[in-house]
Amino acid sequence: MDFDALISGLDRHTLDGITRGSIYALVALGYTMVYGVMKLINFAHSEVFMVGTWAVLGTYTAIGATAGMGVGMVIAATLLALLAAMLASAGTALAVERIAYRPLRKKGAPPLIFLITGIGCSIVLVETFGQVLRVIFGPPFGRVTVNIPSVLETTTLFEIGGLNITNTRLLIIVGAIAMMFALDTFVNKSRLGRGVRAVAQDPDTASLMGVNQERVIMLVFVLGGAMAGVAALLYSIQYDITKFDIGFFIGLKAFTAAVLGGIGNLRGALVGGLFLGIAEVYASIIWSSEWTNVTAFVVLVIILMFRPTGLLGESLGKARA
Amino acid sequence: MSQITSALRIGDRWDHAPKAVRWVALLLLVAFAYYLPYLNILPFAYVRTDLTSSGSDWASVLFLVVVYMIVAVGLNVVIGLAGLLDLGYVGFYALGAYSIALFGSPSSPVTQLIADRFGLSEGWAVPFAFCIPIAILMALVAGVILGAPTLRLRGDYLAIVTLGFGEIIRITARNVDGVTGGAAGITNVPTPPGPEIDGRAFFNTIDAERWYWLALTILILIIFLARRLENSRVGRAWLAIREDEDAAAVMGVAGFKFKLWAFAIGASLGGLAGLLFGSKQQYVEPNAFMVQLSFLFVAMVVIGGSGNIVGALLGAFLLTYLPERFREFVDWRPFAFGVAMVAVMVLRPQGLVPSRRRAREFEDRKQEAEEAAADV
Amino acid sequence: MSEPTSSTSTVAEEQVVLPDTSDHDKIAIEQSGKQGDVLLEVDHVTLRFGGVVALNDVDFQIRRGEILGLIGPNGAGKTTCFNAMTGVYTPTDGKIRFKGHEIAGIKPHKINHLGIARTFQNIRLFPEMSAMENVMVGCDARHKSSVPGVLFRLVRVRPSEEELPASGIRRSLAKVFGISRHTLEERAGRKRSMELLRFVGIADRAGELARNLPYGYQRRLEIARALATEPELICLDEPAAGFNPAEKEDLMGLIRRIRDLGHTVLVIEHDMKLVLGVTDRIVVLEFGQKIAEGTPDEVARNPKVIAAYLGEPDDAA
Description:
The structure holds three protein chains of three kinds.
Chain A: H1 3-8, H2 10-38, H3 45-63, H4 71-107, H5 111-137, E1 146-147, E2 156-160, E3 163-166, H6 167-189, H7 191-201, H8 203-208, H9 213-239, E4 241-242, H10 247-261, H11 266-286, H12 292-306
Antiparallel strand pairs in A: 1-4, 2-3
Chain B: H1 2-16, H2 19-35, H3 58-81, H4 89-104, H5 109-117, H6 128-150, H7 155-175, H8 177-180, E1 186-187, H9 208-230, H10 233-243, H11 245-250, H12 255-281, E2 283-284, H13 291-305, H14 309-325, H15 333-347, H16 356-375
Antiparallel strand pairs in B: 1-2
Chain C: H1 24-27, E1 38-49, E2 52-63, E3 67-71, H2 78-85, E4 93-98, E5 101-102, H3 108-114, E6 116-118, H4 131-140, H5 147-152, E7 156-157, H6 168-177, E8 179-180, H7 181-200, H8 215-228, E9 233-237, H9 245-260, E10 264-268, H10 272-278, E11 281-286, E12 289-294, H11 296-301, H12 303-310, H13 313-316
Parallel strand pairs in C: 3-10, 3-11, 6-9, 9-10
Antiparallel strand pairs in C: 1-2, 1-4, 4-5, 7-8, 11-12
Helix pairs in contact in C: 4-7, 4-8, 7-8
C-alpha cells in the first residue's frame, strides 16, 4: 500500500485516470444505448471496439502513414483512420444486430438467449482476427500483439502547475467529451433521437405512435458502434497496439462503467467511465497494476450495493434525469 | 420444428413406458457408460479420441467430459432453473481445484505454514477425504458471499458481477504468490486413496479410466440429487422466480432465499468438479481457469437446452468431446465453437434437447406466429 | 412476451365445468379470529406521489368473513389503494394494519405468509408451468421443507394410518423410519392443488401449461393459486375483466363459495352489477377519496355515487 506515491503525483494520476476513463466512457455509450432501447447487454460490443482498432491499423498501412510525418499528413491520416474506424465498428455492430439479434427478436426468444448469442458473436469476431484472417492473409493477423504506428507523436503542448499536457492526452479527453456531447445533443434534440427516447421509455406505445422500432434499434447499434470506433482511434493513439482479444477487457470495463453510471443513461456512461478510470489508476498506484482489474469489479459491487441503479440512475428515455 | 415434436414423442414414450422397462433401460445405459473406456468394437470404436498417435487419451477425455457434466448440472440449477445468468462459474471451479491443492498438497504454502505452526512432520497435508468438504464449503461460502449482495440486484447486473468474480479469483490466484504459488501453481495435488495395484497408486496418471469411473459415480449421485430438487417445492420456487419474480413473491415464494440457494448449490457443484479436475491433474495453476471457460460452461447448458438435465449433459458432452475428437483442427476450435453457438441459438433458441416444457412453448409461439400471419 | 395468449380462443367456447362442492371441508381454512372482527384496517391513509395526491385520508375496514367491494371510476385510486394494502406502496400518512400488524415495509412474501393473497388484473401466472404446478407453488407457501430437507430427507414424520402405504415392505419401512416431511408435504400439496382446481372448475386441464389455457381458465387458475396459499384475506383485482355475462354469473357464485371456505374477500371491480350482486359491503372511491361506504343497496341509492360512477355513460352498463 503506497499512499505517498498516490498523493505526491495526484494530479498526474488523475489525468491518467481521466484519459483511460474517456475511452471507457465512449465504449460504454454503445452498451448503454443498446441496453436503454432493448434491455439487452450486447456482449459483442467489446469486439465492435476491437474491429475499430484494426481498421485504424489498416488505414495507416494502406496510406503508408508512419511516425514523423508533416502536420498536414498527420491530421489527414488521423481523420481518415477515424472515419474508417467509425465505419468498421458501426458496420460490425449493425451486422451483429442483423445476423444474430434480429432473428431472435422475431422468434421472441428469452433474454438469456440474446446474451448467449452475443457471447457467441464475440467469440466469432475474436477468432476471425485471431485465426480466420491469419490463415487467409497471414500477419499481422493472428494471436499476437500488433503495433500500430504512432502517427501522432506525443509532444508536450503546455504545462499546468508542473503537469505536462500532451497533445495525445488533450486529443483523447477533448475528443471523447466532444463526441459524447454531440451524441447527447443528438438524442435529446433531433427527431431520430426522440424516437430513440420514445422506444426506450415504452416500446409498445412508441410503435403505436408510429415510431419505427426496427429503425431505432438499427440506429442505436450504428451510433454505439461509431462511438466505439472513435474510442478505437483514441485507444490506438494512446497505446499504439492492438490484438485479436483486446476487446474483452476494454468491453468489460466499459460495461462496468455503464452500470456504474446507471445503464441506459448517456451521461451516466461519462460519469461512470471517468470514475472507473480514475479509480483504476489510483488503485494501481496504491497497490500494484496487477490488481487493476480487481479494483474495477470491487468498485462496481460496492456502488451497486448502495446505489442499485448506478450513480446517475437509469434513464435513456428521461435523458435529463 | 418436427424434430422437437419427435423429441417430445421420445420423452412421452419414456414417460408412458412401464416402470420396469424404464429401470432396465436406465441400468443398461449406466452399465454402458461404465464400459465406455474399453469400447473397442468397430464401428463404434470410431468415437474414440485416440485413434491417431496425436489423439488424446480416450479415458482422460471421458473423465473431462464427466467433470464438465457435473459443472453443467450445477450451472443448470443456476441458469436453467432459477434463471440467473452466472458468467463467473469458472471461479467456483477454480476454488474447488485450489482448495484441494492448497490444503492437500504437501508442497503448497498453506500446508507448509500449518505444518510449521503446529510442528507437524515434513510432507504433512490434509487427507484427501477432508479436502472434499473443504472444497465444497469454500465454493459454497464464496457463492453466498458473492450472491448475498448481488442477487438482490436486477438480473442483468448479476452477469457482469459474476464475470468479474471469475476474473478476481484467477487474478488473486496468480498474484498472491505467498499463498497460491502464483503463476507457477501448485504441484503434488493429492489423489484419492486406494489400494496399490502393480506397484502404482490406484488413482495415478496412467490409468485414467479409474478417474472416469470415480467421476461418473459422483455424477450419477449428483443427478439423483438434482432431480430430487427439481421435483420439489424448491424446484418449483426456482421456476416461479424465473417466470415472474414479483408474482412469485406475492405467492409467498421467498425469492432471495431460493436464489441464494440456487447460487450456493451451483457453486458447490462447481467446486466439486474443480476438485476432481485438480486432483486428476495433480497440478493446479491459474491459467487453467481463464474466463473463457465460463463462457464454455454457459454454452453447454444453453446449447443443450436450458432447464433440463439431459440437455445440460448433452451440451457438456458435445462441447467437450467434439474438440477432442477433432484435435487436428485445434486452432479452429474456438471459431467453430463460436459459430456453433450463434447458429444453434439463432436456429434453435430452445437448445438441442429442450425441456419438454420449453419445447411446447416454442411450438406454441410458432403456431401463434403462423396464425397471426394467416390472419393478415 | 409472457402475455396471456387467448386472442384466438373466444371465452364463450369454453365449457363451463360445474364445480364439485363435495370437497369443501378439505380445502377450508382455519380461522385465527372471530367472524366480524376487523381483519384489515385502512387507517386514514394518504398517499402522495410528488405533488399528486393519489389517496387522501382514506379510511375503512375489512371484517372477517365478509365480501367487501372496492369500486370507483377509472383513476379513483382503487389500484393504488390495493397496492398499498399488499405492501407495494408505503402510505405517506396513516397506517394499514392486517390482524394488528402494520403492512408497510414488510416484504411481499412475508405479507403472503401473514395471510393476504391476491390475483392480478393483467394475469400473471407462471406461463411455462402447468396449471397444477402453478397451484402447487401456492401450496408451497405453507410448507416447510428446506433444501437440505429435500435433498437428504432427514426430517422424518411418523405417518398417520391413512398416510401409510397399503402393504408390503414399504409399509414396514415407513412404520420404522417414518416418512420424510417433504414426501408428505408433496402429497398433501398435490391433493390440495387438485381439489382447488376442481373447486374453481378447471381440473380437466390440470396438466396443461398455464400459457396454453384459455383466458377464462387462466383467470380462475389465478384464483386457485391465490387460494392455495391459505389466505385469510384474498384480494381479487378486477376478476371479471373480459368475462361475458354467463361467466360473470359463475364468478359471483365462485366468490361466494370462496367466502364459504372461510376466506375474507376483497373485490376490486369495475362491473357494478357484479359488485352489487356479490358483496356484503362496498367502499366507493373517487379522486383518491372515499365518497361512500355501505351495503350494496345503500351505495346504489347514494346520490354521490350515482353522480360519480353510475352517471358515467361508459360504466352504466
